[in-house]
């Protein structure tokens, strides 16, 4: 089995998160119900939510960097 570090090295990118194996992922998918809305929350649902927040933060930081670049001309 590959480690998280192995996957990052293979892709050449940092990972946003690691989703643990959870049978609730399949059940939620089959029901058409978002895993992150399950009550009580599952570890996989929390991991998806954390990865989504990291993606939003990354996107926000890139937007700030673009806005702060000096204009040429």
Automatic annotation (TrEMBL):
Gene3D superfamilies xref list: P-loop containing nucleotide triphosphate hydrolases
Record InterPro entries: P-loop_NTPase, ParA/MinD_ATPase
Domain of life (superkingdom): Eukaryota
GO cellular component: cytoplasmic side of plasma membrane; cytosol
Hydrolase among keywords: no
UniProt keyword Iron present: no
Any one GO biological process: negative regulation of cell division
Keywords: ATP-binding, Nucleotide-binding
GO function term, MF aspect, one: ATP binding
PANTHER family: SEPTUM SITE-DETERMINING PROTEIN MIND HOMOLOG, CHLOROPLASTIC, SEPTUM SITE-DETERMINING PROTEIN MIND HOMOLOG, CHLOROPLASTIC-RELATED
Protein name, UniProt field: Putative septum site determining protein MinD
Organism: Trifolium medium
